[in-house]
Amino acid sequence: MDKAIKYLVINTLYYANDPQVIACVNAIEVQSYHDDLFGDDPSYEWFDCIPEIAQAYDNIPLNTEQLANVEYLSGESCQPHHAIMPNWDGEGDDFDPSTLEGLELLPNLTTIKFINFERIKDFSPLFTVPLTLIDESSGIDQVTKQTLKASGVTLGLGLN
Question: Among 109, 113, 107, 103, which Cα is nearest to 134's?
């Protein structure tokens, strides 16, 4: 699964009160890596990603039952983004997916919002899930938009 997609899945499960994801996220937060950014002798620049936190999120295990609970992916105010880059302001491409690999593992995904698809070359994974809405996202090519519309997917702001 693409790391950027995994972070969105973790975010969805975290806010859906998945106990396994919450336990993993809490274990990461207890490690206080943010001192490396905000401490007296910071190891990282203001807008750096903290690689130790990114690796910890990358290592969070997700099972098929958890993946089946994901109906919604949103890049807005994503908890993993703010943990990995504490000063993340929503700008830049640090958390933009480079592939849609892993979408096929989300059998109940119906909604995608606030995702920049500019780096995506292969949009075919969008057709492996039961999408009904893609809203406030960018970077989807015209052919894919037309195919999505023809298959009944509603395209919201910035996609029409």
Answer: 113
Indicate the domain borders of the chain: 3-155
The letter for the amino acid at 40 is D
- E strand or H helix at 112: strand 111-113
pLDDT at 77: 78
Q: Is the overall model pTM greater than 0.85, yes or no?
A: yes
Instruction: Name residue 134's beta-bridge partners.
Output: 112, 155
Residue 127 token pair: 């057709």
Helix axes 19-30, 3-15, angle to 10 degrees: 110
Grouping H, G, I as helix, E, B as strand and the rest as coil, residue 62 is coil
> Which residue in this structure is represented by tokens 């001192």?
35
